[in-house]
Design goal:
31% of the residues lie in helices and 14% in strands. The protein is an alpha+beta fold. Strands 2-1-3-4 form a four-stranded mixed beta sheet, sandwiched between helices.
Length: 118
Amino acid sequence: MSLTIYHNPRCSKSRKTLEIIRSAGIVPTVVLYLQDPPDAAGIGAMAARLGMPVVELLRRGESAVKDATDLPAMGDDDALAAWIAAHPIALQRPIVVDAQSGRAIIGRPPEKVRELLP
């Protein structure tokens, strides 16, 4: 199993999701997305794997989103993906991607990650 978690160690839900993965005996690839953000194409691919539009990846409660003066139209997936790539704090977290199955989940609640585990 090849899991990648887009992780923020300061987020309790992200930490708990990572703990669940590791307790299942899986060593995931951990991407500290605030330091190494995915590009716009990667964000678009995540949204596709999640089966949702890019707008659903926005953390609308974040000040970066609420205070943004340059936020693109909510229906423009390509522009939103580029905006999120430039403002990674606005990305939902944690996102866990299973490269083998092509599936992904947002770990809210963290137990949701069990859907990807064997």
